[in-house]
Amino acid sequence: MHGRSSPESSIPSATFVVPVEPPADAPDRTLDRIVENLGPHALHVITAGGRLSDKVREVVVHGPGEPLPPADAGILLLTGSPSTQAADTVHGAAAAGYRAVVVKAFGDDLARLAHAADKARIALLTTPDEMAWRHLDALISSSKEPALSDATDRFAAIGLGDLFALANAIATSVGGAITIEDPTGRVIAYSNLPHQEIDEIRRLGILGRQTPDRPTNYEEYQAVLRSESPVYFESPAPEYASRMAIAVRAGTEALGLIWVLTDRPPVVARAERVLVDAARATTLHLLRARGQRDPERARRTEALRLLLDGAVAPRSAAAQLGIKPDTPSVVLVIAPVGDDVEPILAASRIVDLVTLYCEAWHSSALCVTDSGLVYALLPTRTTDEPSPRLLKLADDLAATIQRSGHLDVLVGIGSCAAGLADVPESRAMADRVLAVLTGRASRGEPTPRVASVEQVRTEVVLRMVANQGAAVEGQLLGPVRAIREHDQQHGTEYAESLLTYLSSFGDAVRAAEALNIHENTMRYRIRRIETMFDLSLEDGDQILATWLQLRLLRLID
């Protein structure tokens, strides 16, 4: 049980962090193994179609009206109401190489689809209506380990959403007292089995429904969130218990953490494996809890995730987001920064504040977290470049996060989208703007905390060229490669000098001032570079290519 740090805390802190070895590689995935691992709360078989023992590979999310891509032994997640799905969609999935189709019932009779699936010899499965397609995709894709039959059966018997019963079931299986927390340390549920002792840390956490402050809490959270397996924390003193924790994830998104006291009494011999299985079961419960808090917002959030990824048709997204397909909009990406920042944890801390700011901008604005970043979709009035009002909103948001959360962020503003079909491109441009800002910060250059694509378009374009391989080692011009190698071997600064000289359009005085050297020294270096590396600065094409590669290398090094 852990949380925020405080220098006033009188509770000792743990001193050892030992990641537990993950289990050995599992056998190839088959449909029946995936169904067994995830359990009936995630997947329910309507008809097997003779395919449950088949091996499966890729997972594809498919929206109504979209072309059906071919798949090699795939699982098709068919969004939308099953009443709108024609039988030929199921037949088409079987012909395209899919082994199973997953739908949400939404109270509809699935007999017609089941008959079509049987005829096409393809499995038909359902997932709960509140399960986000993106999360189901992540759960299936990460379902690689064999299930522990005793623990799996026990966890599957718990009613979905009954987190206290789940905590007791995990405590029974693992042998130690359990707490389930959200990523910020708020206690969501805990076990209360009489034979399992607790210590003062756990008692305070239960009473306050928030893990107590300790100096090492932040570092311990980072260790857990960065590990794919359980992490062990040795007891700092006899009166405090040792602990083990594992992150609960849906794909890359951290939903929470499970903590277990490991020595009051000692946990079972296979506690690590049981905890891994428990985390997988807890994922479904936390997703249900999130959806129950605000099911409409959860559905809109999932639609936005798919829209940002370009994985859903604009008209389908518009219906779920409650906005018109031709609504102009812009995407913002907010990134927590800092050497000691855990992005996933930080993003979960600020997403509510970002949402509050964005909904003040427009009632249909929506925010989501993804891999330690926060994305916001803001409807706008026009498709012109971001207005001063939008730039001020982003800057005020960054200032508020820094002031209230003591957390620095960078904000990238993407291109203006004429409609929802252009939102993935706006997101891509926002990511590129963020890459420019983080690149400048990593090089120690003056960096604004907010920028739009128009403000940094030149560097965005250069990075796009770099991503096409124009500055990879095998494509470097001979003189550029030779200059870099000479600088690395002899500690010279010929590459920087030449780039500065070319960027100054051959003005030795300006270049010398930029490098803080004498202009004669600058001219001497350029003559040496031409002689040593067989470089002609009279050839316009060679000058352009040399400058471009040196400039790109500065961006990506």
From TrEMBL:
Q: What is this protein called?
A: Helix-turn-helix domain-containing protein
Name all PucR C-terminal helix-turn-helix domain ranges: 495-552
Pfam families (UniProt xref): GGDEF_2 (PF17853), HTH_30 (PF13556)
Residues making up the signal peptide according to the UniProt record: none
Region span, Disordered = 1-23
Q: Which family does it belong to?
A: Belongs to the CdaR family.
Q: Which residues form the CdaR GGDEF-like domain?
A: 315-436
Show the ranges annotated as biased composition (Polar residues): 1-13
Enumerate the InterPro entries for this protein. Answer: CdaR-like_regulators, CdaR_GGDEF, PucR_C-HTH_dom, PucR_C-HTH_sf
Q: Which Gene3D superfamilies match?
A: PucR C-terminal helix-turn-helix domain
